[in-house]
Design goal:
The structure is a single chain. By secondary structure, the chain is an alpha+beta fold. The protein has nine helices and 14 strands.
Length: about 325
C-alpha cells in the first residue's frame, strides 16, 4: 500500500516542483540603482520588470528643489531669503510633521536650528568665532514657535529666522521613493539614502531584509563597518543618528554635530547612537535626531509615550563602558 501511494503521489510532486519553478521564473527580477543625492549616496533595490532609475531620481529632485538649502532655487532657500512665495506640498508636509515632532519632543527637534548649526561649523555656511554672547544673540531668532504657515506661506516672527530640514529631508526622500513604488504596485524593495531606510516585502532570496547597526566608533571618514547588531525588518521606516562620524576637535575639545536648539550648544549626553523604527522614514529620521538631543532618560520617556515607535540606543555608561537599551517592540527585529 505504501509503495502504491508513493507511485500515485510522485507525479503530483513532480508537477508541484515544475509549477513552482515556472512561477519563480515568471517573477520580475530585482533591480539595483545607485547614485548621489542630498550630499550622500543612495542605493535602491526593488523587484520590477522595468528599470525605474529615471523616475526615482525625478522624485528625489522634487525633494531637492523643495528642501535643499544648497540649491539657490529651492523653496526653502527662497523662504530663508524671505521671498514672497507659496510653499509646495512637499515643504508643507515636512513643515507640519516637524512642528508635530517638535511638540512631542519638547523642542528637541527644531528645523529653525540652522543658524546655530552654521555657527558651530556643521551647516551650509562656514563656522563663526563662537562664544556665549554669539550663541545668546543667535538664539533670539531660533525657535520653531517663532514660525508658522498661513494659506501656504511661511510667516516668521523675525526675518533672520532660517529653516534647515536636513534632519528630516533624507527620510522624507526615502518615503517619496517608497510611495512611487507603491503606486506602481511594487511589493518588494529596500530604499537606502545615506543610512535612512524603508524596507517592504522580501529580498531577492525571499527572506526578510537584514540591516546592520554600526558600532559607534569615532569615524569621521566612515570607514568603520563593525556591526553592533543585525535587524530583520520589513514594512517599516528606519533611521540612525550618531555623533561618531560628524564631529571636529578644537583646542583639545570634541564638538559633535547634534546641536540642542534649546541651549544653542552641541549635546553632551551619553547616547552614542540612536536607531528608530517607525511607520515611515521621515518620522524615524526626526525622532532619531531628537533622541540624540534628549539623552537616554528623556528618550526613554518619549518612547514610552509613543509605543508606535521602536528604538535601539547605544550609550556610554558612567564607567566608560558601552551599554545598550532597546524598547520592547524592538525585540522582534533583533537577530543578535
Amino acid at each position: 500500500m505504501t509503495r502504491n501511494k508513493i507511485r500515485w503521489q510522485l507525479p503530483f510532486l513532480v508537477l508541484l516542483i515544475v509549477g513552482t519553478v515556472l512561477i519563480l521564473r515568471k517573477q520580475a527580477p530585482f533591480q539595483t540603482d545607485q547614485g548621489l543625492v542630498f550630499g550622500t549616496m543612495y542605493k535602491i533595490t526593488y523587484q520590477s520588470d522595468e528599470n525605474l532609475k529615471n523616475e526615482i531620481e525625478a522624485e528625489l529632485e522634487k525633494v531637492n528643489q523643495s528642501l535643499s538649502p544648497f540649491s539657490k532655487e529651492s523653496v526653502i532657500t527662497h523662504i530663508n531669503q524671505n521671498t514672497d512665495l507659496t510653499a509646495d506640498s512637499l515643504f508643507t508636509y515636512v513643515f507640519q510633521l516637524a512642528k508635530q515632532i517638535s511638540e512631542e519632543t519638547h523642542g528637541a527637534f527644531d528645523i529653525t536650528v540652522a543658524p546655530l548649526v552654521n555657527a558651530w561649523g556643521f551647516g551650509f555656511k562656514n563656522a563663526t568665532q563662537i562664544d556665549s554672547l554669539t550663541i545668546d544673540s543667535i538664539r533670539q531668532f531660533v525657535g520653531i514657535d517663532k514660525v508658522r504657515m498661513e494659506n501656504g506661506k511661511v510667516i516668521k516672527d523675525d526675518p533672520r529666522l532660517m529653516l534647515d530640514c536636513s534632519a528630516i529631508a533624507k527620510g522624507f526622500g526615502v518615503d517619496c521613493v517608497a510611495r512611487l513604488f507603491d503606486r506602481k504596485g511594487i511589493k518588494n524593495y529596500m530604499i537606502d539614502i545615506g543610512g535612512e531606510l524603508v524596507m517592504k516585502g522580501e529580498n531577492a532570496q525571499m527572506n526578510t531584509w537584514r540591516i546592520g547597526i554600526n558600532k559607534p566608533i569615532d569615524d569621521s571618514l566612515a570607514v568603520n563597518q563593525e556591526l553592533q547588531t543585525i535587524l530583520e525588518i520589513s514594512n517599516a521606516g528606519m533611521a540612525t543618528s550618531g555623533n561618531y562620524r560628524n564631529f571636529y576637535y578644537k583646542d583639545g575639545k570634541k564638538y559633535a554635530h547634534t546641536i540642542d536648539p534649546r541651549t544653542g550648544y552641541p549635546v553632551q549626553h551619553n547616547i552614542l547612537s540612536s536607531t528608530v523604527v517607525a511607520k515611515d522614514c521621515a518620522t524615524a529620521d526626526a525622532y532619531a535626531t531628537s533622541f540624540m538631543v534628549l539623552g537616554l532618560d528623556s528618550a526613554k520617556a518619549v518612547c514610552n509615550a509613543h509605543p508606535e515607535l521602536d528604538a535601539y540606543f547605544i550609550y556610554s555608561k558612567d564607567n566608560g563602558e558601552t551599554g545598550v537599551y532597546f524598547t520592547e517592540g524592538m525585540k522582534k527585529y533583533l537577530k543578535y
